[in-house]
Amino acid sequence: MAHNDVVLEHDEDVYDPLLIGKRIRAHRRARGLSLNELAERLGRAPSQVSVIENGRRELKLGELQRLARILAVSVDDLLSTEAPSRRAELEIALERAQQGALYKSLPLPELPVRKTLSDEAIETILGLHEELRRLHEERAATPEEARRVNGQLRAEQSRAGNYYPELEAIAADLLKHINYRRGPLSQRRVGELAAALGFTLHSVRDLPRSARSITDTENKRIYLPIGRGASDSRSTVLQALAAHELGKGEPNDYGELLRQRVETNYLAGALLVPEASALKFLSEAKTDHELSVEDLRDEFAVSYETAGHRFSNLATEHLGIPVHFLKMHSSGTILKAYQNDDVQFPTDALGAVEGQIVCRWWSAQQVFRTEDRMTPFYQYTDKPAGTYWCTSHIESGSAGEFSISVGTSFEHAKWFRGRETKRRFTSTCPQPSCCREPDAALSERWDGAVWPSARLNASLLAAMPSGTFTGVDRVQMLEFIDRHAPLEG
Protein backbone atom coordinates (compact mmCIF):
# COMPACT_ATOMS: atom_id res chain seq x y z
CA MET A 1 0.00 0.00 0.00
CA ALA A 2 1.40 3.41 -1.00
CA HIS A 3 1.89 6.10 1.62
CA ASN A 4 -1.05 8.14 0.36
CA ASP A 5 -3.33 5.11 0.57
CA VAL A 6 -2.90 4.80 4.33
CA VAL A 7 -6.31 4.81 6.06
CA LEU A 8 -6.49 7.23 8.98
CA GLU A 9 -6.94 5.50 12.33
CA HIS A 10 -10.49 5.88 13.67
CA ASP A 11 -10.10 7.79 16.92
CA GLU A 12 -13.00 10.02 17.98
CA ASP A 13 -10.54 12.44 19.58
CA VAL A 14 -8.53 12.73 16.29
CA TYR A 15 -10.61 11.55 13.34
CA ASP A 16 -14.38 11.44 13.32
CA PRO A 17 -15.80 10.64 9.84
CA LEU A 18 -19.10 12.33 10.69
CA LEU A 19 -17.44 15.53 11.88
CA ILE A 20 -14.94 15.69 9.06
CA GLY A 21 -17.75 15.18 6.55
CA LYS A 22 -19.60 18.18 7.98
CA ARG A 23 -16.43 20.30 7.73
CA ILE A 24 -15.89 19.27 4.10
CA ARG A 25 -19.50 20.22 3.28
CA ALA A 26 -19.17 23.57 5.08
CA HIS A 27 -15.95 24.47 3.19
CA ARG A 28 -17.48 23.32 -0.11
CA ARG A 29 -20.46 25.58 0.36
CA ALA A 30 -18.27 28.46 1.57
CA ARG A 31 -16.36 28.28 -1.76
CA GLY A 32 -19.61 28.17 -3.70
CA LEU A 33 -19.03 24.66 -5.04
CA SER A 34 -21.88 22.27 -5.76
CA LEU A 35 -21.67 18.61 -4.87
CA ASN A 36 -21.23 17.77 -8.55
CA GLU A 37 -18.43 20.31 -8.99
CA LEU A 38 -16.48 18.97 -6.02
CA ALA A 39 -17.00 15.41 -7.26
CA GLU A 40 -15.69 16.36 -10.71
CA ARG A 41 -12.53 17.99 -9.30
CA LEU A 42 -11.98 15.02 -6.99
CA GLY A 43 -12.56 12.52 -9.79
CA ARG A 44 -15.37 10.79 -7.96
CA ALA A 45 -19.05 10.25 -8.52
CA PRO A 46 -21.33 12.74 -6.70
CA SER A 47 -22.85 9.85 -4.73
CA GLN A 48 -19.38 8.95 -3.39
CA VAL A 49 -18.77 12.52 -2.26
CA SER A 50 -22.21 12.55 -0.60
CA VAL A 51 -21.27 9.44 1.36
CA ILE A 52 -18.08 11.19 2.52
CA GLU A 53 -19.93 14.36 3.55
CA ASN A 54 -22.46 12.26 5.48
CA GLY A 55 -19.62 10.64 7.43
CA ARG A 56 -20.31 7.14 6.18
CA ARG A 57 -16.87 6.32 4.82
CA GLU A 58 -13.42 6.66 6.30
CA LEU A 59 -11.01 8.65 4.18
CA LYS A 60 -7.54 7.68 3.13
CA LEU A 61 -4.76 10.15 3.76
CA GLY A 62 -4.31 10.84 0.07
CA GLU A 63 -8.01 11.63 -0.35
CA LEU A 64 -7.93 13.97 2.62
CA GLN A 65 -4.93 15.82 1.19
CA ARG A 66 -6.59 16.20 -2.24
CA LEU A 67 -9.78 17.53 -0.63
CA ALA A 68 -7.76 20.03 1.40
CA ARG A 69 -6.02 21.33 -1.77
CA ILE A 70 -9.31 21.63 -3.69
CA LEU A 71 -10.99 23.48 -0.80
CA ALA A 72 -7.89 25.60 -0.16
CA VAL A 73 -7.64 24.63 3.51
CA SER A 74 -5.16 22.65 5.55
CA VAL A 75 -5.53 19.00 6.49
CA ASP A 76 -5.49 20.10 10.14
CA ASP A 77 -8.49 22.30 9.42
CA LEU A 78 -10.46 19.34 8.08
CA LEU A 79 -9.40 17.27 11.10
CA SER A 80 -10.48 19.93 13.61
CA THR A 81 -12.65 18.57 16.43
CA GLU A 82 -14.94 21.63 16.34
CA ALA A 83 -18.18 21.54 14.40
CA PRO A 84 -18.19 24.20 11.66
CA SER A 85 -21.52 25.64 12.86
CA ARG A 86 -24.28 25.24 15.45
CA ARG A 87 -26.42 23.57 12.80
CA ALA A 88 -23.68 21.08 11.98
CA GLU A 89 -23.23 20.37 15.69
CA LEU A 90 -26.94 19.56 16.00
CA GLU A 91 -26.92 17.36 12.91
CA ILE A 92 -23.89 15.43 14.20
CA ALA A 93 -25.56 14.90 17.57
CA LEU A 94 -28.74 13.65 15.89
CA GLU A 95 -26.80 11.28 13.64
CA ARG A 96 -24.91 9.87 16.61
CA ALA A 97 -28.10 9.44 18.61
CA GLN A 98 -29.68 7.45 15.77
CA GLN A 99 -26.58 5.28 15.48
CA GLY A 100 -26.71 4.41 19.19
CA ALA A 101 -28.05 1.18 20.67
CA LEU A 102 -30.90 2.94 22.49
CA TYR A 103 -32.42 4.49 19.34
CA LYS A 104 -31.96 1.29 17.37
CA SER A 105 -33.82 -0.63 20.06
CA LEU A 106 -36.91 1.52 19.47
CA PRO A 107 -39.48 0.69 16.74
CA LEU A 108 -38.76 3.99 14.98
CA PRO A 109 -37.63 4.69 11.41
CA GLU A 110 -34.42 6.57 10.72
CA LEU A 111 -35.02 10.31 10.61
CA PRO A 112 -33.27 11.92 7.59
CA VAL A 113 -31.43 15.11 8.48
CA ARG A 114 -32.75 17.54 5.86
CA LYS A 115 -32.70 21.31 5.52
CA THR A 116 -36.43 21.35 6.22
CA LEU A 117 -35.79 19.95 9.70
CA SER A 118 -35.43 23.06 11.87
CA ASP A 119 -32.84 23.57 14.58
CA GLU A 120 -35.64 23.74 17.15
CA ALA A 121 -37.00 20.38 16.02
CA ILE A 122 -33.58 18.75 16.27
CA GLU A 123 -33.03 20.22 19.74
CA THR A 124 -36.40 18.85 20.86
CA ILE A 125 -35.62 15.40 19.49
CA LEU A 126 -32.21 15.40 21.17
CA GLY A 127 -33.79 16.51 24.45
CA LEU A 128 -36.30 13.68 24.31
CA HIS A 129 -33.53 11.21 23.45
CA GLU A 130 -31.41 12.37 26.40
CA GLU A 131 -34.31 12.02 28.82
CA LEU A 132 -35.10 8.58 27.43
CA ARG A 133 -31.44 7.61 27.84
CA ARG A 134 -31.43 8.84 31.44
CA LEU A 135 -34.58 6.89 32.32
CA HIS A 136 -33.27 3.80 30.54
CA GLU A 137 -30.00 3.84 32.48
CA GLU A 138 -31.77 4.55 35.76
CA ARG A 139 -34.26 1.72 35.34
CA ALA A 140 -31.52 -0.64 34.19
CA ALA A 141 -29.61 0.02 37.41
CA THR A 142 -30.62 -2.99 39.48
CA PRO A 143 -29.70 -3.86 43.07
CA GLU A 144 -26.62 -5.56 41.58
CA GLU A 145 -25.12 -2.11 41.08
CA ALA A 146 -26.01 -1.16 44.64
CA ARG A 147 -24.26 -4.30 45.95
CA ARG A 148 -21.17 -3.54 43.87
CA VAL A 149 -20.92 -0.04 45.32
CA ASN A 150 -21.61 -1.37 48.81
CA GLY A 151 -18.72 -3.79 48.41
CA GLN A 152 -16.39 -0.90 47.66
CA LEU A 153 -17.60 0.96 50.75
CA ARG A 154 -17.15 -2.15 52.91
CA ALA A 155 -13.55 -2.45 51.72
CA GLU A 156 -12.95 1.19 52.65
CA GLN A 157 -14.42 0.57 56.10
CA SER A 158 -12.18 -2.44 56.61
CA ARG A 159 -9.07 -0.45 55.69
CA ALA A 160 -10.11 2.28 58.16
CA GLY A 161 -10.93 -0.19 60.94
CA ASN A 162 -14.48 1.17 60.63
CA TYR A 163 -13.34 4.24 62.55
CA TYR A 164 -13.74 7.80 61.23
CA PRO A 165 -12.13 10.40 63.52
CA GLU A 166 -13.60 13.36 61.60
CA LEU A 167 -17.14 12.11 62.30
CA GLU A 168 -16.27 11.44 65.94
CA ALA A 169 -15.06 15.04 66.22
CA ILE A 170 -18.30 16.39 64.74
CA ALA A 171 -20.33 14.28 67.18
CA ALA A 172 -18.30 15.54 70.16
CA ASP A 173 -18.77 19.14 69.02
CA LEU A 174 -22.53 18.69 68.60
CA LEU A 175 -22.86 17.20 72.09
CA LYS A 176 -21.26 20.33 73.53
CA HIS A 177 -24.36 22.23 72.39
CA ILE A 178 -26.40 20.46 75.08
CA ASN A 179 -23.63 20.07 77.69
CA TYR A 180 -23.70 16.27 77.44
CA ARG A 181 -21.45 14.55 80.00
CA ARG A 182 -22.33 10.87 80.34
CA GLY A 183 -24.99 8.18 80.02
CA PRO A 184 -27.74 7.58 77.46
CA LEU A 185 -28.82 10.37 75.14
CA SER A 186 -32.50 10.60 76.05
CA GLN A 187 -35.32 11.73 73.77
CA ARG A 188 -35.40 14.98 75.68
CA ARG A 189 -31.72 15.61 74.99
CA VAL A 190 -32.19 14.72 71.31
CA GLY A 191 -34.98 17.31 71.16
CA GLU A 192 -32.68 19.83 72.83
CA LEU A 193 -29.97 19.14 70.25
CA ALA A 194 -32.45 19.64 67.41
CA ALA A 195 -33.55 22.94 68.96
CA ALA A 196 -29.93 24.03 69.44
CA LEU A 197 -29.41 23.51 65.70
CA GLY A 198 -32.53 25.53 64.92
CA PHE A 199 -34.90 22.66 64.09
CA THR A 200 -38.37 21.87 65.33
CA LEU A 201 -39.76 18.31 65.39
CA HIS A 202 -43.18 17.43 64.02
CA SER A 203 -44.85 14.01 64.36
CA VAL A 204 -47.44 13.47 61.60
CA ARG A 205 -49.71 10.68 60.41
CA ASP A 206 -49.45 11.39 56.68
CA LEU A 207 -45.70 11.02 56.14
CA PRO A 208 -45.17 9.15 52.82
CA ARG A 209 -44.73 5.43 53.49
CA SER A 210 -41.49 5.42 51.52
CA ALA A 211 -39.83 7.93 53.89
CA ARG A 212 -38.45 7.46 57.41
CA SER A 213 -38.39 11.21 57.92
CA ILE A 214 -38.49 14.37 55.81
CA THR A 215 -36.45 17.47 56.55
CA ASP A 216 -37.61 20.92 55.45
CA THR A 217 -34.31 22.83 55.49
CA GLU A 218 -35.97 26.11 54.49
CA ASN A 219 -38.23 26.20 57.55
CA LYS A 220 -35.91 24.03 59.72
CA ARG A 221 -38.54 21.33 60.35
CA ILE A 222 -38.07 17.59 60.72
CA TYR A 223 -41.18 15.47 60.14
CA LEU A 224 -41.49 12.06 61.81
CA PRO A 225 -44.14 9.35 61.37
CA ILE A 226 -46.74 8.38 63.96
CA GLY A 227 -47.71 4.77 64.47
CA ARG A 228 -45.08 2.81 62.57
CA GLY A 229 -43.93 0.25 65.06
CA ALA A 230 -41.52 0.61 67.94
CA SER A 231 -38.51 2.04 66.09
CA ASP A 232 -36.32 4.38 68.11
CA SER A 233 -37.24 7.90 67.00
CA ARG A 234 -33.96 9.17 68.47
CA SER A 235 -32.01 7.47 65.65
CA THR A 236 -34.34 8.89 63.00
CA VAL A 237 -33.98 12.44 64.30
CA LEU A 238 -30.21 12.14 64.71
CA GLN A 239 -29.80 10.76 61.19
CA ALA A 240 -31.74 13.75 59.83
CA LEU A 241 -29.61 16.15 61.88
CA ALA A 242 -26.47 14.32 60.78
CA ALA A 243 -27.42 14.72 57.10
CA HIS A 244 -27.94 18.44 57.67
CA GLU A 245 -24.67 18.91 59.55
CA LEU A 246 -22.76 17.00 56.86
CA GLY A 247 -24.36 19.10 54.13
CA LYS A 248 -26.04 16.15 52.41
CA GLY A 249 -28.50 16.73 49.58
CA GLU A 250 -30.52 14.30 47.49
CA PRO A 251 -28.10 11.68 46.10
CA ASN A 252 -27.56 11.36 42.36
CA ASP A 253 -26.40 7.74 42.20
CA TYR A 254 -25.94 4.57 44.24
CA GLY A 255 -22.45 5.45 45.40
CA GLU A 256 -23.57 8.78 46.78
CA LEU A 257 -26.70 7.28 48.34
CA LEU A 258 -24.83 4.53 50.18
CA ARG A 259 -21.96 6.76 51.25
CA GLN A 260 -24.45 9.23 52.70
CA ARG A 261 -26.15 6.42 54.58
CA VAL A 262 -22.86 5.15 56.00
CA GLU A 263 -21.80 8.61 57.15
CA THR A 264 -25.14 9.70 58.61
CA ASN A 265 -25.63 6.36 60.40
CA TYR A 266 -22.11 6.59 61.80
CA LEU A 267 -22.62 10.14 63.06
CA ALA A 268 -26.00 9.25 64.59
CA GLY A 269 -24.40 6.27 66.34
CA ALA A 270 -21.57 8.45 67.63
CA LEU A 271 -24.17 10.75 69.18
CA LEU A 272 -26.16 7.94 70.78
CA VAL A 273 -23.01 6.22 72.07
CA PRO A 274 -20.46 9.04 72.48
CA GLU A 275 -16.85 8.05 71.97
CA ALA A 276 -15.39 9.35 75.24
CA SER A 277 -18.04 7.78 77.47
CA ALA A 278 -18.12 4.52 75.52
CA LEU A 279 -14.34 4.20 75.49
CA LYS A 280 -14.15 4.63 79.26
CA PHE A 281 -16.83 1.98 79.69
CA LEU A 282 -15.24 -0.47 77.24
CA SER A 283 -11.70 0.00 78.51
CA GLU A 284 -12.77 -0.90 82.05
CA ALA A 285 -14.64 -3.95 80.72
CA LYS A 286 -11.58 -5.09 78.76
CA THR A 287 -9.39 -4.77 81.83
CA ASP A 288 -11.83 -7.08 83.60
CA HIS A 289 -12.04 -9.44 80.60
CA GLU A 290 -15.78 -8.67 80.54
CA LEU A 291 -16.40 -7.00 77.18
CA SER A 292 -20.05 -7.41 76.22
CA VAL A 293 -22.20 -5.95 73.46
CA GLU A 294 -25.21 -6.51 75.73
CA ASP A 295 -23.68 -4.32 78.43
CA LEU A 296 -22.88 -1.57 75.92
CA ARG A 297 -26.48 -1.72 74.73
CA ASP A 298 -27.85 -1.41 78.26
CA GLU A 299 -25.39 1.28 79.33
CA PHE A 300 -26.48 3.66 76.56
CA ALA A 301 -30.08 2.47 76.12
CA VAL A 302 -29.76 1.69 72.39
CA SER A 303 -30.69 -1.27 70.23
CA TYR A 304 -28.41 -4.29 70.05
CA GLU A 305 -27.71 -3.44 66.41
CA THR A 306 -26.59 0.09 67.29
CA ALA A 307 -24.42 -1.27 70.11
CA GLY A 308 -22.88 -3.83 67.74
CA HIS A 309 -22.16 -1.19 65.12
CA ARG A 310 -20.67 1.15 67.69
CA PHE A 311 -18.50 -1.61 69.12
CA SER A 312 -17.12 -2.28 65.64
CA ASN A 313 -16.30 1.46 65.33
CA LEU A 314 -14.25 1.56 68.51
CA ALA A 315 -12.89 -1.94 69.11
CA THR A 316 -10.05 -1.99 66.59
CA GLU A 317 -8.99 1.64 66.85
CA HIS A 318 -9.02 1.93 70.66
CA LEU A 319 -8.99 -1.62 72.03
CA GLY A 320 -6.74 -3.30 69.47
CA ILE A 321 -9.34 -5.97 68.72
CA PRO A 322 -10.15 -6.81 65.09
CA VAL A 323 -13.83 -7.71 64.75
CA HIS A 324 -16.62 -8.57 62.33
CA PHE A 325 -20.27 -7.56 62.33
CA LEU A 326 -23.09 -9.47 60.66
CA LYS A 327 -26.80 -8.76 60.30
CA MET A 328 -28.70 -11.75 58.93
CA HIS A 329 -32.38 -12.23 58.12
CA SER A 330 -34.09 -15.28 59.62
CA SER A 331 -34.16 -16.75 56.10
CA GLY A 332 -30.36 -17.01 56.32
CA THR A 333 -29.50 -14.16 53.94
CA ILE A 334 -27.00 -11.45 54.80
CA LEU A 335 -28.41 -7.93 55.16
CA LYS A 336 -25.26 -6.15 56.36
CA ALA A 337 -21.70 -7.27 56.97
CA TYR A 338 -18.37 -5.76 57.99
CA GLN A 339 -15.05 -7.32 58.91
CA ASN A 340 -11.41 -6.51 59.51
CA ASP A 341 -10.50 -9.78 61.30
CA ASP A 342 -10.05 -11.89 58.12
CA VAL A 343 -13.29 -13.82 58.57
CA GLN A 344 -14.55 -14.94 55.15
CA PHE A 345 -18.16 -14.04 54.41
CA PRO A 346 -19.93 -15.82 51.55
CA THR A 347 -19.80 -13.74 48.37
CA ASP A 348 -21.15 -13.80 44.85
CA ALA A 349 -19.01 -13.64 41.71
CA LEU A 350 -18.68 -9.86 42.07
CA GLY A 351 -17.56 -10.08 45.71
CA ALA A 352 -20.87 -8.80 47.15
CA VAL A 353 -22.11 -10.37 50.41
CA GLU A 354 -25.63 -8.91 50.60
CA GLY A 355 -28.21 -11.58 49.85
CA GLN A 356 -25.76 -14.46 50.27
CA ILE A 357 -26.67 -17.42 52.49
CA VAL A 358 -24.86 -17.79 55.82
CA CYS A 359 -23.52 -21.23 56.75
CA ARG A 360 -26.00 -23.08 58.96
CA TRP A 361 -23.23 -23.79 61.51
CA TRP A 362 -22.38 -20.14 62.14
CA SER A 363 -23.56 -18.38 65.28
CA ALA A 364 -25.84 -16.10 63.23
CA GLN A 365 -27.87 -19.17 62.18
CA GLN A 366 -27.54 -21.23 65.34
CA VAL A 367 -28.99 -18.51 67.57
CA PHE A 368 -32.42 -19.10 65.98
CA ARG A 369 -32.37 -22.68 67.30
CA THR A 370 -32.32 -21.69 70.95
CA GLU A 371 -35.52 -21.17 72.90
CA ASP A 372 -33.79 -18.97 75.47
CA ARG A 373 -33.70 -15.49 74.01
CA MET A 374 -32.96 -13.75 77.28
CA THR A 375 -29.55 -15.29 77.89
CA PRO A 376 -26.70 -14.03 75.67
CA PHE A 377 -25.74 -16.52 72.94
CA TYR A 378 -22.05 -17.34 72.52
CA GLN A 379 -20.33 -19.75 70.16
CA TYR A 380 -16.96 -20.78 68.73
CA THR A 381 -16.86 -21.77 65.08
CA ASP A 382 -13.93 -23.48 63.38
CA LYS A 383 -13.81 -21.96 59.89
CA PRO A 384 -11.36 -22.34 56.98
CA ALA A 385 -9.67 -19.05 57.97
CA GLY A 386 -9.38 -20.05 61.65
CA THR A 387 -11.46 -20.28 64.80
CA TYR A 388 -13.77 -17.39 65.66
CA TRP A 389 -15.77 -16.53 68.76
CA CYS A 390 -19.14 -14.80 68.27
CA THR A 391 -22.00 -13.43 70.28
CA SER A 392 -25.41 -13.25 68.57
CA HIS A 393 -28.76 -11.75 69.42
CA ILE A 394 -32.19 -11.81 67.72
CA GLU A 395 -34.14 -8.62 67.05
CA SER A 396 -37.38 -7.97 65.20
CA GLY A 397 -38.20 -5.43 62.52
CA SER A 398 -40.83 -4.65 59.90
CA ALA A 399 -39.36 -7.36 57.62
CA GLY A 400 -39.38 -10.03 60.34
CA GLU A 401 -36.68 -11.39 62.63
CA PHE A 402 -32.97 -11.04 62.11
CA SER A 403 -29.83 -11.89 64.06
CA ILE A 404 -27.05 -9.47 64.95
CA SER A 405 -23.62 -11.02 65.47
CA VAL A 406 -20.33 -9.55 66.62
CA GLY A 407 -17.26 -11.74 66.57
CA THR A 408 -13.49 -11.88 66.68
CA SER A 409 -10.69 -14.36 66.19
CA PHE A 410 -9.94 -16.98 68.87
CA GLU A 411 -6.91 -15.12 70.27
CA HIS A 412 -9.03 -12.09 71.18
CA ALA A 413 -11.93 -14.01 72.72
CA LYS A 414 -10.16 -13.77 76.08
CA TRP A 415 -11.37 -10.19 76.49
CA PHE A 416 -15.07 -11.08 76.24
CA ARG A 417 -17.68 -12.38 78.61
CA GLY A 418 -18.89 -15.70 77.24
CA ARG A 419 -15.42 -16.88 76.20
CA GLU A 420 -15.89 -19.99 78.35
CA THR A 421 -18.79 -21.30 76.25
CA LYS A 422 -18.66 -24.96 75.26
CA ARG A 423 -20.80 -24.40 72.19
CA ARG A 424 -18.61 -25.11 69.18
CA PHE A 425 -19.25 -26.03 65.54
CA THR A 426 -17.18 -26.60 62.43
CA SER A 427 -17.88 -24.89 59.12
CA THR A 428 -16.13 -25.78 55.88
CA CYS A 429 -18.19 -23.43 53.69
CA PRO A 430 -17.95 -22.58 50.85
CA GLN A 431 -17.46 -26.31 50.30
CA PRO A 432 -20.89 -27.67 49.24
CA SER A 433 -20.47 -30.68 51.50
CA CYS A 434 -20.63 -28.41 54.57
CA CYS A 435 -24.32 -27.54 54.49
CA ARG A 436 -25.36 -27.00 50.87
CA GLU A 437 -25.81 -30.65 49.93
CA PRO A 438 -28.67 -32.69 51.48
CA ASP A 439 -28.19 -36.11 52.95
CA ALA A 440 -27.61 -38.64 50.17
CA ALA A 441 -30.33 -40.99 51.44
CA LEU A 442 -32.87 -38.16 51.52
CA SER A 443 -31.92 -37.09 48.01
CA GLU A 444 -32.41 -40.60 46.70
CA ARG A 445 -35.67 -41.10 48.59
CA TRP A 446 -37.32 -37.96 47.20
CA ASP A 447 -35.63 -37.71 43.81
CA GLY A 448 -38.18 -36.45 41.25
CA ALA A 449 -41.04 -36.36 43.74
CA VAL A 450 -40.72 -32.79 45.06
CA TRP A 451 -41.55 -29.49 43.36
CA PRO A 452 -41.34 -26.33 45.49
CA SER A 453 -43.17 -23.08 44.81
CA ALA A 454 -40.58 -20.46 45.69
CA ARG A 455 -41.41 -17.27 47.55
CA LEU A 456 -39.47 -14.67 45.58
CA ASN A 457 -38.53 -11.44 47.27
CA ALA A 458 -40.30 -8.51 45.65
CA SER A 459 -36.93 -6.85 45.06
CA LEU A 460 -35.25 -9.87 43.47
CA LEU A 461 -35.87 -8.88 39.85
CA ALA A 462 -36.91 -5.27 40.30
CA ALA A 463 -34.89 -2.22 39.41
CA MET A 464 -34.48 0.52 41.97
CA PRO A 465 -37.43 2.97 42.04
CA SER A 466 -37.25 5.47 39.22
CA GLY A 467 -37.03 9.21 39.75
CA THR A 468 -34.66 9.13 42.72
CA PHE A 469 -32.07 6.78 44.11
CA THR A 470 -33.40 7.24 47.63
CA GLY A 471 -36.49 5.19 46.79
CA VAL A 472 -38.69 7.95 48.26
CA ASP A 473 -41.67 8.92 46.11
CA ARG A 474 -40.74 12.43 45.03
CA VAL A 475 -44.30 13.48 44.16
CA GLN A 476 -45.61 12.44 47.56
CA MET A 477 -42.65 14.05 49.31
CA LEU A 478 -43.05 17.46 47.65
CA GLU A 479 -46.83 17.45 48.08
CA PHE A 480 -46.33 16.58 51.75
CA ILE A 481 -43.72 19.25 52.41
CA ASP A 482 -45.83 21.90 50.65
CA ARG A 483 -48.93 20.87 52.61
CA HIS A 484 -47.15 21.17 55.96
CA ALA A 485 -45.04 24.26 55.28
CA PRO A 486 -45.97 27.17 57.57
CA LEU A 487 -47.98 29.95 55.93
CA GLU A 488 -45.95 32.96 54.85
CA GLY A 489 -46.54 36.14 56.72
From TrEMBL:
Superkingdom of the source species: Bacteria
Pfam families named in the record: HTH_3 (PF01381), Peptidase_M78 (PF06114)
Gene3D superfamilies xrefs: lambda repressor-like DNA-binding domains
Keyword DNA-binding: yes
Assigned keywords, A-Z: DNA-binding
Domain HTH cro/C1-type, first and last residues per copy: 24-78
Family named by the database record: Belongs to the short-chain fatty acyl-CoA assimilation regulator (ScfR) family.
Protein name as catalogued: XRE family transcriptional regulator
Species: Gulosibacter molinativorax
